[in-house]
Description:
By secondary structure, the chain is α+β, with helices and mostly antiparallel strands. It has 20 helices and 14 strands. The strands form 3 sheets. A 6-stranded antiparallel β-sheet has the order 2-1-11-10-7-8, with no helix packed on it. It has a 5-stranded mixed β-sheet with strand order 4-3-5-6-9. The longest helix has 30 residues, at about 10-40. The model is unreliable at about 150-155 and about 560-625 (pLDDT under 50).
Amino acid sequence: MEDILNFLQTGVGPAALLVIRILVPLLALYVSWRCYTSFKSGQRRRDPVVMLVEEASGTEFPVLYWENSIGRAKSCDICLPDAAVSRDHAVFMRREEGWFICDTGSKGGVAVNGRKVTDRKLVNIGDRITLGSFTLTLRNASQAPVQKRRIFTSILREAASPFKLMFAATLCHVLMAFQACFAGEGFHPAALLPEAGVFLMGWGLFAWSMGYMHRVSFEIETVGYLLSGMGVNLLAGFQLSGVKTQLAALFMGVLLFCFLIWFMGDMDRVARFRLPIGVGALCLFVLNLVLGTVTHGAKNWIYIGPISIQPSEFIKIAFVFVGTSTLDRLQTKKNMTEFLVFTGACVGFLFLMRDLGAAIIFFATFLIIAFMRSGSVRTIILILAAAAFGVFLVLTFMPYVADRFSAWGHVWEDPYDSGIQQTRVMTYMASGGLFGIGLGKGCLKYVFAADSDLAFGLLCEEQGVLLGFLVILTIALFILYARSDVTRSRSTFFSIGACAAAGMLLFQTCLNVFGVTDLLPLTGVTLPFISAGGSSMVSVWGLLAFLKASDERTYAARRSGRHGVAAPPPPPPAQRKSSQAPPQPSARRRPSEPPPPPPPRRKPPENPPQRPKHAAPPAGDMEDIYS
Length: 627
């Protein structure tokens, strides 16, 4: 210990700490970027898995997605130009049992092999689907996929090792924790204990996902582990005694993440629980109004002994659940009345609680979900006009709301009262420079809410503006993760959920960062993964589950064995029918009768047909691509 202190008193010690602060953003940049490129390279090519062939003309309609809309409208995935076909006639979708066709309220109806469909109908290879004057036959895709040339091929096509990315993220955390050991006078090795907790939870999740569940991707979890570890180590330099709550919340967030991944694995189960989840969210709002305590002007906290809970953070997850839906249900019920009423109730409760920041986040998420569900720009414009009128009424009849925005854009006119937080953040961010002054050595920690609302400023002052902007970039990449999964996810439910969750995280980040720098009014929302707050930490990991579930590789390893050896996949629907043994006669053979002769043994062909090397798998085997 004395040797370490003597070393730091020399000129080499501060230089070594500066090198560490330079390495932290470089490692974080490597992990963030390689996670994204690895995520992109691991995705399935957008090649057809099966084909729908029109018998009369021989026209082939490639089936590219897990859920495909069929209709007369040009926006449909499979467009059938026929007046007898409705604009949104049916949905052709993939589920665990095989491919299904579902009539979505068409006028002419849908028939499979001449029989009209009233509900979801399983379709096997060779079955004929009649829609209007079209008769489509389900066939396996036989053509080889077209290879497309890409720029930076060597970077995008090579998936990074999940173990190496986790190791790089852990090294980034250790370097931050080592700085926290010098936050005060002397060397304090106890600052390494929070990093030990983050290490156990992160690598425990890695062992569970990659080792026990045999999943083939770990990019989303690695990014969450990277950001959460940064937040915990930042708080360790701020106040070591307050990190226990954050670690406990991180543990519960990881458990919630695993539970939601399991829960969303069954689409029928999700559909059954959407209504109870929505009702539970509204009941939680009522409980907050009854038992909540006003803290810093907002009644958004419930105190149970030494534990404080912010219910609105958990309702964010429920809000995404209620807003999403599968494609067949979206086309059957072409209105958003239920979701619009639920959104109005949520925003109304938040205004009664005076939690304006959360109300804005909910409304922005509503716009994302509404656009993805309807695709109508006119609807969004009408909603925005109604919202603008509502804001006018609020500012007119609720003057205390306008008072909260009075300092916006004028913080330097009153830097010691209404603008004290924003002016201190901008001043200390500038003093931190590119690489900061070291964990625990900043001055912003003496300003109120430095570890929560002002966490971005604290991060920039102590670790540098470069790392602060890198955190924003990493959260912004969630949008690209969700965008990449829109056409490849197992259901429209996952596409909408991933975009809503990513948009919610990014919008909350913008409110926090722009608020503390006076580009927007200060709303008091937290910086995801970084700010102190147990409810927020649990919530962001719950939102990450939507991004993880949207990746079709997440559920691709279900058929793998317990010891990592892939079990043989079941035959596709067309082969299951033909592979069954022929029925035996019901009459029993008399003892006096001779046994029937054995069937002649068929000679195997000399050159058995083989599937081309790059041919798409047969129907029903889409999940085996990643096994």
